[in-house]
Design a protein that fits this description.
By secondary structure, the chain is mostly helical. It contains eight helices and three strands; from the N terminus they run αααβααβααβα. A three-stranded parallel beta sheet has the order 1-2-3.
Amino acid sequence: MAILLLLLTAAQVSVAVHYTDRTAPISERVADLLGRMTLEEKIAQTYAPYSRIDPAKFPHGVGQLSVDSATGKASSPAEMVRERNRIQTVMVNSTRLGIPASWSQEALHSGATGGTVFPELVTQGSSWDPELVTQIAAAIALEARATGTDVVFSPVLNQWVDSRFGRLQEGFSENPTLTAVYAAAAAV
């Protein structure tokens, strides 16, 4: 009986999920997780559906979800967080390894639905004030993170070479030097 108990204990120790051990070095956790993942689960981590999703249709999980698209048009930050948490809970609890999705959103002039709305980048660029751009970027980052966003698509560093592009408001300037100064200022 003692030998059987010892064998059962040893078996339980060998199946310990190392990648969830927050005290283990990150490189070891990553190696352990990748070793456990199937090819399908690895491919699923490349998925980034940009629409409202049914988590049940992604049995192997997803890599990234857009906050605004996945949660619908929430009317407040609290509603957005509730819906994000609901979806994330399903994603974690319905996949074999419980890998959470990364959450992204565009954050050119705001970090959250119902949050502070700042001027577009073209207006920030005309301010000639890199410190102001840093303060705006920090406020946007704080609001985005408070709602669970861990990836933002901002700033846009495209140069305006053709006015037909149609999204000129998303860049700081047509001047590469000025854009570089603001890009550095926005990297908070």
